Amino acid sequence: MGTIKEVKTEYGWWYRSCKDRLCTKSLKDIGGKYKCDGCGAESTEFTPRYKIHLTVVNETESISFIVFEREAQNFLKKSYNELRRDIFENVNI
Ligand SMILES: [Zn+2]
């Protein structure tokens, strides 16, 4: 076990993913629409998903890794859309 030392935000904390719930691979912007790296589907729509860069430390080492939405939901207990809704509900503009 280790301790989360840092959440890196310089790479962003979400990515555009395939609308296919079983695919969830990232999409490439191909000009006006997106193409899936996984299944090859092209669409103008995407599903935003977590992609969180973490640094975890223990007594001997420091490891950086990426947590995707499926794993992130296990400890955040919220999907991206739920989290975003919470953020906007708590912001007074
Ligand atoms: Zn796909």
UniProtKB/TrEMBL annotation:
Pfam families linked to this entry: Rep_fac-A_C
Replication factor A C-terminal domain residues: 2-84
Lineage top rank: taxon: Eukaryota
Protein name: Replication factor A C-terminal domain-containing protein
Species of the source: Stylosanthes scabra
